[in-house]
Design goal:
This protein is α+β, with helices and mostly antiparallel strands. It is 28% helix and 35% strand. Bound molecules: adenosine-5'-triphosphate and magnesium ion.
Length: 169
Amino acid sequence: MRLFLALMPPPSLRGRLGALADAAQARCGGRRMPDESLHLTLAFLGEVEETRAAALVDWVSRLAVPPGEWRLNAWGRFQRPGIVWVGGQAPDPALVALHCRLWDELESQGLEGRPSRYVPHVTLLRRAERLETEGLPTPALTWRYRHLLLVRSFTRDDGAHYATLARSA
Ligand code: ATP
Ligand code: MG
């Protein structure tokens, strides 16, 4: 099964991220992520066997994540897949540290696939027609988090759907 570790926005923030996605789509076109799918990926694990997934559920359930506040104050783009995102002007140090710690622990469990760089971001649009975020109002949101989730991703014709398998302690 296809798994990743993520932060899910609290309900109050989800709507505000959705409003940013609407504003971005009006300008850039493309496919808008549905509100219920908006998230921050901390670590993408890819395809994982069932027994390993069970061990990951155990591990995540015991994991203590330092609570934090992430400031979302910048638009970003990834050229190749045409992604428009919202995130920080610079990668947030606490999130980068969390990503590194998670990958240290994942590697000690035998997982592979640690990326060479990590830019914390929330994808708002895919396959954007115009990667032009200039002129959009500068985002100003604060995301307070306490838990991370182990999430399973199902691919369907209308895009990916996510199901939560575990939550950190
Ligand atoms: P779809 O691929 O169907 O458009 P999706 O990207 O939302 O949908 P997944 O591909 O399962 O679904 O990805 C789950 C999460 O992991 C997303 O946040 C995605 O951006 C991220 N992700 C996917 N592949 C990678 C990768 N190779 N490296 C880092 N993050 C990834
Ligand atoms: Mg994908």
